[in-house]
Amino acid sequence: xxxxxxxxxxxxxxxxxxxxxxxxxxxxxxxxxxxxxxxxxxxxxxxxxxxxxxxxxxxxxxxxxxxxxxxx
Length: 72
Fold this sequence. Notes:
Mean pLDDT: 90
Number of helices: 2
Strand content: under 5%
Helix content: over 70%
Oligomer: single chain
Order of helices and strands: HH
Radius of gyration: 27 Å
């Protein structure tokens, strides 16, 4: 996006003021995307850790059941 705005400004298709506005909008969009990404990453990371712990507990429980079953 920045390359496109720079290209247009260098070819005098947009003036410096418009160029600044466009770059400001680009910065805002990148910030929105970054915040969304970080939020989703944290949510998914937490879910993954939680589900991983649940799975480990379930496996341990199943292991104990099988030990009891086949110990007799």
